[in-house]
Design goal:
Elements (H helix, E strand, L loop, with lengths): L5 E6 L20 H7 L5 E7 L20 E4 L2 E4 L25 E5 L22 H7 L4 E7 L1 H14 L3 E10 L6 H11 L3 E3 L1
Parallel strand pairs: 1-2, 1-6, 2-5, 6-7, 7-8
Antiparallel strand pairs: 3-4
Helix pairs in contact: 3-4
């Protein structure tokens, strides 16, 4: 059993990010058994869930003439435009059926504000608007986080870097993550995490 001040953060293991989903990450379903094995070892377990309203501003379909994986400029910076995914209440937004989701102490839903995307478990993409996760972890006495989930180069990496910025000791277990690797984004994410002081474990 891990120490009481350690938490497992399970990021976005949802149907739309697994094979057959709207924004499938190759091998995304393969991490589910690994995560299930880890869950009993942690006193604190938090799951995050992408939770977009229809016509979210991060969807390519919300921008005339734009295709998925192109970019656009938002007030908070450059935004990748995604296929419609993880729409509130949809099958795609549900956790993978085999994930032991009942073991979660807390589920953080993110990306529900129509005007801003949210990769990180801690902040919206403006890097200012909090999700509330930090406060929960502080009140539980958590100092160390292990991050797993989807996708390595976006939601996992953003969460890891933000967690370090907030002073948490962060480990990313790549064995229990999978990446999209959009134009070299996976290597860039690994560099960003290591530069921030994240322990990236293959």
């Amino acid at each position: 059993m891990r120490d009481a001040n350690e938490a497992l953060i399970v990021i976005d293991v949802q149907n739309d990010f697994c094979p057959g989903g709207a924004l499938a990450v190759e091998g995304g379903d393969k991490i589910v058994p690994l995560i299930n094995e880890m869950l009993p070892d942690f006193h604190v377990k938090v799951f995050t869930q992408d939770w977009h309203p229809a016509a979210h501003s991060s969807f390519a379909s919300s921008h005339d003439g734009k295709e998925p994986y192109q970019t656009t400029e938002m007030p908070y910076g450059t935004q990748v435009l995604w296929p419609d995914h993880c729409i509130q209440g949809s099958i795609g937004a549900k956790f993978h059926d085999n994930l032991h989701r009942d073991r979660a102490d807390l589920i953080i839903r993110k990306g529900f504000r129509p005007e801003i995307d949210s990769y990180s478990a801690f902040f919206e993409n403006d890097q200012t608007t909090p999700t509330g996760l930090e406060g929960y972890l502080r009140t539980r006495g958590v100092e160390k986080l292990t991050l797993v989930g989807l996708a390595t180069d976006f939601c996992v990496a953003y969460s890891a870097v933000d967690g370090r910025r907030l002073g948490f000791d962060i480990t990313v277990l790549e064995e229990a993550c999978r990446g999209i690797d959009l134009d070299g984004s996976l290597d860039a994410a690994r560099r960003a995490m290591r530069d921030a002081g994240v322990h990236v474990v293959a």
